[in-house]
Structures are given as structure tokens and as C-alpha cells.
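Ligand-bound model needed. adenine.
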Amino acid sequence: MYQFIAGLPKVELHLHIEGSLEPELMFQLAKRNNIDIPYASPDEVRAAYDFSNLQSFLDIYYQGAQVLITERDFYDLTWAYMLRCKTDNVLHAELFFDPQTHTSRGVDFDLVMKGICGALAAAEIELGISSQLILCFLRHLDEASAFDTLNQAQAWKQQIVAVGLDSSELGHPPEKFARVFATARQQGYLTVAHAGEEGPSSNIIDALDILQVSRIDHGVRCVDDPQLVTRLIDEQIHLTVCPLSNTKLKVFASMEQHNIVDLLYKGVSVGVNSDDPAYFGGYMNDNFNALANAHPLTYEQLAKFTSNAIDASFCNAQRKYELQQQLQVYLDKQ
Ligand code: ADE
Ligand code: ZN
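Prediction:
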């Protein structure tokens, strides 16, 4: 099974680039930029990664991002993630980035974009991995800050396929960003949103109806509303599910209790993703392996996660076709 998973072509649609900052790189960048961090070693950083809920993680995640200062930092961060994609046979990745985490510290929006886009372009050429970039608004900040961020993205519209919504879900429902998302859609962006991770299933409905998202990030609380599950199946709305994240943040008490396999059986379009792999104990292969350890899954079911993600990706039709072909070739070889 591990061997099958290792070779399985994969597509990642839910990855926060700031969440791929490994403690070793955090230390290296802290040194390079003369920034004090409250830990003595990378191991000490890892020991602090014991989360009780989403907020307890976010507090540490925003603190960690403070070592990211220069264009080279963002390049190195992104390149390290793309190398992990290569190792895990991820053929296509759609990355979230949180500009407000950086601009609020005086780090220039354009510098962030240059660093990330430089590494993504290099990965396409040198590693053959295609990618897209999704700008996320931090939902704990206000509408004005989101509009300001959307304006700063104007010059980079060609490099950003969609806008998304992340950070603290409780107390910050989708409707808070209705006008920002409407403007973004008018400007030609696709939309996605974190919903139904810790927050209620009604956030999923509001993300679909108010923000008009193309897919839902997490969405696992949909099961609280059977009518919504039927809608997700009928409309084939994709959920970018993150198994290790959900167990680390206590959305589920254990991997055995995770509902992704139930959702797959029901006919919901679900995929497997790593969310913040440096914080949650693993990249794509680790997420697939953790699931396969806890649930009986056939090769076909594991491949269906990839196939669903290809269909829900923001690639053009030609690239989707190529990815489905590569998946089929792999399955035919088994
Ligand atoms: N930002 C980074 N990871 C996140 C998650 N799992 N939920 C909400 N916001 C996030
Ligand atoms: Zn996320």
C-alpha cells in the first residue's frame, strides 16, 4: 500500500505556503534576518506544535511567518515545498498565500509575489510541476483590509487564479466578505473559501450562495446537514479535505473517526491535501498513508481522490486531460 501511494500521481489543492515552513528553515531565516525566535532549536519548535483547536495553531503559525522578510525567503520557502511535491509525486499544486500576514509587518506585497512566483516558474521548468496561486484574505481582519489587499493584487492578476478565505472561522462568517468577493469575481477571479472546518455547516451554504465559491476548503462539517450533503453530491462541489490537519486540530478525535471515506462512499467529490504540512506532521504521502492506515481503502478509491482533485482543479482542459491520463497509466500498471 505504501508503495502504491508513493507512486500514485497526486494533485494538491489545499496548501498554505506559509504552513510549509519547516522549523529548520525557520531557524535559518531567523539567523539570516536577525530575528529573535522564542525557541532554542528546531526540535524545541516542533515540541511546541501541540494544538487544541484551530486558534491555538494559528497563533503559532502567524508567529512563525515573521521570519519571512526578503524575496529570497519567499523563494526558498516555495522552492522547498515544490521539492517536496516532487518527492511525493504531486504533479500539480494550487497554493494559498496570506498577503496580510506579511504586509501588516511592513513586508511589500510585490516582494512576496516575486519570491513565490519565481520559485513556481522554476518548478514548472526544472521539476515539471504545474501550479496556480490563490490569494487568501484573513477573515479575522476587516473588510477594508481585504479590499486593500485586493487592490494590491491588481498588478499581479495574471499570476493569481482565485481568491480564498482562511484564518479563524468561528465568529467570522462568509457574509463578512460578500462585497470583497463580489468585486473579486467582477475582476475575473475564481473564488474558494475555508468553511465547515470548525464552523457550522451553514458556513458551507453561505460560501456557496453568497461567495459563489467553486469549491470548499475542508467542508467536513457538511454531515451535520443531510440536505447539504445531497446538494454537494448533486452539484459535484469538491471538498479539499486535510486529514492530518483535522486530527491535529481536534476536528476529529482520531483518524479512524475522520469522515472523508464515508463522504467518498456517498459520492461527494473529496480530495486529500496537507494544509500546513510543516505543522501537522506531513505532506501528501503522509496524509494518504495516515488515511490508509486507519481505513480500508482500495487502489481505485485512493486514485479517486486524485481524479476528483484533477476535475476540481483550476487547470485548463488540456492539463486536466494530461493529468487524468497519467493517473490512468499508473492504475493500468498495477
Ligand atoms: N490558515 C492556515 N491553515 C488554516 C486552516 N486549516 N484553517 C484556517 N486558516 C488556516
Ligand atoms: Zn487551510
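The mean pLDDT is 98.
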